[in-house]
Structures are given as structure tokens and as C-alpha cells.
Amino acid sequence: MTQQATVTRLLSGNRAEIRVDRQSACGHDCSTCKGCGMEGKPILVPADNPAGARPGDRVVVESDTKKFLGVAALTYLAPLALLFLGYGLLSGYSEGIAVLGAVGGLAVGCALLIPLNRFVRDKRPVKTVITAILED
């Protein structure tokens, strides 16, 4: 995945902190959609800085698309799968019980994402690299 970002500060080890304007996983510009409410909420990400970018520089960054999409798929699909599993396991009972099973499955799926997110962030982060400095 290739994006544009702004370098906010330099870090040790030839790395830099970059500010990336948030985009949806589907590739749309959130500022025009307003569907998910994420407009105007940039994220700060550490990145390798072989290009030698300085604070304030606009840069092109690349990250592992396969890993990023895998994390996104897990984030969205795991709770959904557990929702259907919860409904399916209790579908032999009344409709109300099956719906409670679906809600419970969704809650478990969301609860599992918290430690999973911490694990991915700490142990298997998506590597981001500054590949070019953009000219003004």
C-alpha cells in the first residue's frame, strides 16, 4: 500500500514518526464519504527513513499490503463470523435466544480483538518505509 504522509519528528535508528491522513480500507477518501466518522483523525506511525526525510517533509510511504489487508479482514470478519456462529448454535431454540447468541458471539468477537490488536501492534507490526520525499 502506498500513501502520502507528513514527517512529524525523527526517531532513533534512522526512523521517523509520520502523520498519515486516515483513509478507509476500501480506498475511498473519508473526507468526502462521512460514512464512518473518521474524517480529520490522522494516525501517527513510526516508519523506516532511508530517504532521509526531515520534520515537515511530505513523503511517500509504503507498507506491506498483504499484511495490512490480513489484519483488516480479521478485524472485520472475526466478529461477524462469531455473530453467525452464535446465532447458528442457538437457532434450535426460540428466535430470542438465537438473537442473544448472535449478540453474544459478536461481543466475544469484539472482546477478542483487543488482545489481538495489542499482539499485532507489539509483535507483528506492519512495516512502513519512507520511499520518497515529495517536492513542494
List the helices and strands and how they pair.
Layout: E1 2-11, E2 15-20, H1 30-33, E3 43-48, E4 58-63, H2 65-89, H3 95-123, E5 128-133
Antiparallel strand pairs: 1-2, 1-4, 2-3, 4-5
Helix pairs in contact: 2-3
Features:
136 residues; 5 strands; alpha+beta; elongated; 3 helices; five-stranded antiparallel sheet
Provide a brief overview of the structure.
The chain is α+β, with helices and mostly antiparallel strands and 136 residues long.
Shape: elongated
User: Unreliable stretches, pLDDT < 50, 5 or more residues?
Assistant: none
Number of helices: 3
Biggest sheet: strand arrangement: 3-2-1-4-5
| Chain-averaged pLDDT | 84
Q: How many beta-strand elements?
A: 5
Largest sheet: 5 strands, antiparallel
Instruction: Estimate what percentage of residues fall within beta strands.
Output: 25-35%
Straight-line distance between termini: 23 Å
Number of domains: 1
The SSE string, one letter per element, is: EEHEEHHE
Structural class: alpha+beta
| Helix percent band | 40-55%
Compute the CA-based radius of gyration: 19 Å
Give a written overview of the molecule.
- This protein has a 5-stranded antiparallel sheet with strand order 3-2-1-4-5, with no helix packed on it.
- A hairpin with a 3-residue loop joins strand 1 and strand 2.
- The protein has one domain (2-133).
- The protein has 136 residues and is α+β, with helices and mostly antiparallel strands.
- The two termini are 23 Å apart.
- It has 3 helices and 5 strands; from the N terminus they run ββαββααβ.
